[in-house]
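Hi everyone, sorry if this is the wrong subforum. Our group has a chain we'd like a structural model of before ordering constructs, and none of us has done structure prediction before. Sequence below.
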Amino acid sequence: MVASRWRTTGQVLFVAALGAATLAFLFHYSVRHASFDLKIYYYAVRYWLGGQGDLYSYHAPGGNLGFTYPPFAALAMLPMAGLPWPVARLVGKLASVAVAVALLVVYWFLDPVAQRQGWTRWFTWAVAAVLTGLFEPLREAISYGQVNMILLGLVLADSRIIVRGSRWGGVAVGIATAVKLTPGLFIGYLLIARRWRAAATATATLLGVTVLAAPDG
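Answer:
Right subforum, don't worry. Here is the predicted structure as tokens:
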């Protein structure tokens, strides 16, 4: 009992120290991009909603960067576009962190290993969660305000659904591709893997939501 208590205390102190070291590293060495990408898409959608012009005619002040995602991405961003910018920025960051840590990287991949090896689950989760802050692709995606982790979440969730043989397999891949074209590579993978129904469902979903979101005329 005493040994277990000391072990727990040591684990708490280790996580606290690791967290402090990670925060110090991020503060001194990480490059902060102030949600640069998200800001462009956020204000482009508001520009369009305000009747100021076409979605793709928006250009960020001081440059010529504008909205480059497919039209469905604008519909997906409508709830965030209705929020004040600081709140929308926070929501975007929290969504990426939640997908990366709580739902995907830790739960789906690391938690089964922790159970098989008999590791303390909360300690394994805490260490992994802290260390993900040092993972450069994730850090940059969150700093820029990109949707990459959310799209990854859709694709990985769909892979589990497809393996289970559900008729809904492919829907999330289609939606992810309608937001950003890169996940469309997984439709090609489904074809190579001869997952015909899932590939057809993903393609139909992609076409359906894109046509739904396409501008009139």
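For your construct planning: The chain has two domains: 2-146, 149-213. The chain has a mean pLDDT of 88.
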